[in-house]
Amino acid sequence: MRRAIEQLRVNVVELQMAPLRMEVQTQGGGFFAVTQGEQRLDDLTYLESAVTALFPKLSWWARALTTAREVKSPPHENQLSSSGV
User: Fold this and answer.
1) What is the DSSP letter of 84?
2) Which residues contact 30 (CB under 8 A, 6 or more apart)?
3) How far apart are CA 48 and CA 25, in angstroms?
4) Cα Rg of the chain (Å, integer)
């Protein structure tokens, strides 16, 4: 288990992911109905409260990370270690 958690941490860091506590979970039946074209995503009204809570935070992180990434990037880890830091 410890190895799996460490691997997950490495992947999250590599993808430069930002933490969000909120989530939107679709129920299995609804998900399959949407993917098979039997329902529209708008028909899954139980998602509305989760989407309403998540999107403002997601939007904030998107703007913050876009701004941060426009600034000159910090040196890569291998550049830090080769400089003796």
Assistant:
1) T
2) 39, 43, 44, 46
3) 11
4) 19
What is the rounded distance in angstroms from the CA atom of residue 56 to the CA atom of residue 43?
22
Q: Domain spans of the chain?
A: 2-82
Residue 60, phi-psi category: left (phi > 0), alpha (psi -120 to 50), beta (remainder): alpha
| Closest C-alpha to 55, from 31, 18, 19, 24 | 24
For 18-64, write each residue's pLDDT tens digit: 888 888 888 888 889 999 999 998 899 999 999 999 999 999 999 99
**Residues in the chain, total:** 85
Spell out the SS3 assignment of 15-73: CCCCCCCCCCCCCHHHHHHHHCCCCCHHHCHHHHHHHHHHHHHHHHHHHHHHHHHHCCC
pTM of the model: 0.56
